[in-house]
Amino acid sequence: MSPNQTPALWLKHIRQDVQSMHAYAIQDSTGMVKLDAMENPYSLPPELQKQLGERLGALALNRYPGDRVNVLRAKLAKYVKMPEGFDIMLGNGSDELITLLSVACDVPGASILAPLPGFVMYAMSAQLQGVTFHGVPLTANFELDEAAMLSAIATHKPAVVYLAYPNNPTGTLWNADAIERIVLAQGQQGGLIVMDEAYQPFASQTYMDRIARHDHVLLMRTLSKFGLAGVRLGYMVGPQALIAEIDKVRPPYNISVLNCECALFALEHSEVFAQQAALIREEREKLSHSLAAISGVQVFPSQANMLLVRMPDATKCFEGMKLKGILVKNVSKMHPLLTNCLRLTVGTPAENAHMLAALKESL
User: Fold this and answer.
1) 330 Cβ partners below 8 Å, 6+ apart?
2) Could you tell me if 225 and 305 are in contact, meaning their C-beta atoms sit under 8 angstroms apart?
3) Of the candidates 217, 36, 189, which has an alpha carbon nearest to the alpha carbon of residue 208?
4) Which of 51, 104, 162, 306 sees the fewest Cβ atoms within 10 Å?
5) Are the beta carbons of 110 and 131 closer than 8 angstroms?
6) Chain-centre distance of CA 342, in angstroms?
7) Is 270 helix (H, G, I), strand (E, B) or coil?
């Protein structure tokens, strides 16, 4: 009997809820114009690529990461204008930080709460840690349902409330006053707020200028949307005492010397990435106007590097675009509010032109 025919006796050691889950799916993009994952479409200029390669080639890969990680923490703190009395924690992407929060806050009866539709890792990390997740639907136009959020906080008293600012997959930058009332309500019941600013380079507002008012708010960002999706580096800012507790569950050496040096190099050339973000914001507005002019297509306002669009048959359009070599994200089955919606990453002018043409032909 071959190994594949042997009864899987080891399955009894795998949690039932894990067996019923699906692994995070990454679409095959071979030979496609890749506009499905909110990546920065621009690479480094050739001269900077060469400089970075030489710098990475000189690293001591036979040694564990050392003090350069703390140098990066200090540089990031300065870059984001971190308030006095706050600290910064690094993660292997924001995903790891979200997981570590679920681990740190896993006390009996704990729960995590977030608006839906939202980033899938909030719920997934809670489920994997055995923590209850409560999703609160957004309104029909993807705004925060403030009354529902406040009611859910009062009822469930969650350990953590996630607020994506702007939100994925909708691109929405929610009302600042509504957010403040939710922040205060969560603080009054003794819970934490995480402001997830993954798409901050493309947004007109940040919570960083308000974070110093609170001792229960964490602000999370990533270098993925900054332009380093392949580097996998996220960071979280919060009061020193709070960061110190969460940092206790962080694996040792979770940031590689390669990740660290790439991030330091990027911060030294932050003006290049700022210019790229400005180009993407300009293209987002042009693309939004072009999409709005197409009959049968509804485009939603966005402050991220993506646009959510609704059409008569999203799956038909998605498949048609794919046949034409354009890969976007079909989010229509993720949540009832997203029925017949596609999420389009903003690319270069040429990529956006190809995407628009393919979308029109595929409707």
Assistant:
1) 314, 315, 318, 342
2) yes
3) 217
4) 51
5) yes
6) 17
7) helix
Fold assignment, 25-44+271-362? Aspartate Aminotransferase, domain 1 (3.90.1150)
Residue 362's nearest CA partner among 323, 321, 333, 307 is 321
Do residues 302 and 171 touch, judged by C-beta distance below 8 A?
Answer: yes
d(C-alpha 120, C-alpha 150), whole Å: 22
Q: Is the pTM of this model over 0.90?
A: yes
CA distance 299 to 288: 7
Whole-number pLDDT of residue 1: 43
Who contacts 317 (Cβ-Cβ below 8 Å, separation ≥6)? 311, 342, 359, 362, 363
SS3 sequence, 34-78? ECCCCCCCCCCCHHHHHHHHHHHHCCCCCCCCCCHHHHHHHHHHH
CA dihedral 277, 279, 281, 283 (to 10 degrees): -140
| pLDDT tens readout for residues 174-202 | 999 999 999 999 999 999 999 999 999 99
Give the model confidence (pLDDT) of 102-124 as tens digits. Answer: 999 999 999 999 999 999 999 99
- Residue ranges of the chain that CATH labels 3.40.640.10: 65-268
Q: Where in the chain is the domain with CATH 3.90.1150.10?
A: 25-44+271-362
CA atoms within 13 Å, Cβ hemisphere of 102 = 21
> Which residue pairs, CB below 8 angstroms and at least 24 apart, start in 43-52?
44/269, 44/272, 45/272, 48/265, 48/269, 48/272, 51/265, 52/262, 52/265
According to the CATH classification, is domain 65-268 in 3.40.640.10? yes
- As a dihedral over the C-alpha atoms of residue 301, residue 304, residue 305, residue 308, rounded to 10 degrees, the angle is -40
